[in-house]
Amino acid sequence: MATETTTHRFATQAVHAGAAPDPATGARVQPIYFTNGFVFESTEQAADIFAMRRTGFSYSRGSNPTVAALERRVAALEGAKAAVAVSSGQSAVLLVLMTLMKSGDAYVASSRLFGGSLGLMRRLDGRYDLKPQFAKGLTPADFEAAITPDTKAIICESIVNPCATVMDLEGIAEVARRHNLPLVVDNTLASPALIRPIEHGADIVVHSTSKFLGGAGQTIGGMICDAGRFDWKAAGSRYNLINEPWPDYDGLVITERFPEISFAVACRLFGLRDLGPGLSPMNAFLTLTGIETLPLRMERHCANAKAVAAYLKDHPAVEWVSYPALPGQPGEALAARYVPQGPGSIFTFALKGGEPAAVKFIMSLELISHLVNIGEIKSLAIHPATTTHRQLDDADKRAACVGPEAVRLSVGLENVEDLIADIAQALAQVG
Ligand SMILES: *Cc1c(COP(=O)(O)O)cnc(C)c1O
């Protein structure tokens, strides 16, 4: 489960980390192990694996060799001690919250999160009494002001969907450290090619691998990465799942048996063995293959996004563009500090003609697809106010740059002149 240490650089790890030629056959590509069960050598071995006294495969809900290769690779790219793959990014956020907290607990959350995360948090509050305490703004001081004695964690995104706002991770990590709280960062929009939140003080990193990591828009998946740094033991019974004996595992205390990867082990035992949203080996294979080109793709995603954003900014039909790699944008300094390569390829822009113009623009696109995913090889557009961000009220929509006049783009890897030509013809029809 732990990652091998390696001196290789990022692009090399993206291709090699966590997988090796198959010792049984010599297959160079990671085999897909489509098997639910694994034959035990002895009853002792079976008992030891069940009780977590020794590592090994037993049943693919909890772990599988193809999925484990993906976990090792993402852990290596994030600089984490271990990672746990799950069936979706949504499950990754859910399992992190459920593993850290029990009903009655609270956590400070960024008020600018992926819409699915906000919906999940609302339902967990209403039905399971896990309380989100939303920070009023995006600064570290806003996060600190939201902390109460019930707070068990802080959660934010590295780059915020859909305005490409870059968060001050080091400032927020500093707040988390001061209050002895683990910092959870959803790194989906940056991917480890642009930001490695653990280097900036995060304790737990989550991903929707459905986006840039998989890259091709083929498969849904999620990942939970454990930096192995948070002192769960010092926090005592505040994190009882991680730090108190599990009677059905012969009194296993995770922090004692697995001090370096406690959170990952707790997620595997509670999140996968008990709750069950494991990743299919097929999806793990596709994601693993996608990651091999991640550094190359992110370079092009950022370059294309910057060129498209610059074109839009100068267009007479466009009111504003939210892409902090452009000069004079709010958040420019944070973007320059955390993402010198560029703040990814998902951003919004607004049309002077308001909602009718935004709708007309989207419906006039020919090359760029009208669809809800992000972070794919293909370029995509959507109207967030009526789809992904429809649950926000009007004031929150404007604050999150998803008012009715806004269009979200996820800029892909096509030739950028072709992308700009498609945008130009669609803008011409808006009038
Ligand atoms: C898409 C997304 C998720 C949810 O991931 P799924 O794989 O779609 O379940 C979570 N966080 C962010 C930032 C996302 O963009």
From TrEMBL:
One Pfam family, short name: Cys_Met_Meta_PP
Presence of keyword Transferase: yes
Entry cofactors: pyridoxal 5'-phosphate
SUPFAM superfamilies: PLP-dependent transferases
Top-rank taxon, per record: Bacteria
Keyword terms: Pyridoxal phosphate, Transferase
Family: Belongs to the trans-sulfuration enzymes family.
The name this protein goes by in its record: O-acetyl-L-homoserine sulfhydrylase
